[in-house]
Amino acid sequence: MKRLIQVLSIVLLFFLTNMFLSYSDTVPATNLVVEEQVVKKLANNEMMVYFLPIDQGEATLLQLPNESFYLIDTGSTAFAEDLIRILYEHGVNRLKGLFLTNNSKEHIGSLNVLLNNYPIEYIYIPELTASTYPIPRSNSAKIIPLKTDEKLFLGDQVELTVLFPSEPLSLSPQVNSLVLHLVHQDVEFLFTGEINEEVENRLIEKYSLRSKILKVSDFGSNEGSSSQFLQEVDPQVAIIFSSDPNLYQADEETLERLNETWVDVYQIKNHGEIQVISDGNDYQLEIIRDN
Description:
By secondary structure, the protein is an alpha/beta fold.
């Protein structure tokens, strides 16, 4: 009976998500007011990570040499135009890959608009919850379900490892988010989706999590970012996206724990776009504020 309830809940979640996304491709993505394209020219040993200034949800752009781009999540439907504009301004004409860490609206809300505007070669989703992702059948991208411990080599000296999910800890798609560890030689990024403390404890038991840049889980809520987890990651920089266009602050207790680790905290809602360029040995961070 418990198993039946779980299956029915997942099916219900799938249909609700489809209903939510059914109108997302109607958001106009033409005639946008955009700035001039500014394409960063990277050396062969460099990688650029842009934490994009989306008012609701998460979207992170990875740029490798030869203008090869990957996107992690799309932000919410309401800000699809902003996403398309920002990608254009960064010189994105096509995406090598799109990672969808979970199927909540803050992570895949702009998916259909993105598919209508950009050729995408690969779409990566967690194998564990692949059936709940409402990806249009007309989409030409190759769908790649990702398993725990799977490694992807995105470029020279750039490796991405899937750390989670390995088993369903909850019916919540957020808790079963993809957790991605991006390593560029000595510079590491940890993308935690919306995992909670239970998942963090599983990760602590299994992996070395030390990373210079941490994308804070669950928009800085108090469900995650435990003191023990932050000690294990030992980040120098923490990035927090917003789940609410009217919310300018993460949870106070989460911020307090982050500050206790002497990490530099950047909230996208307050700071604007955060750009991190890595040469494999070290990184530089720049804040790009919206005018």
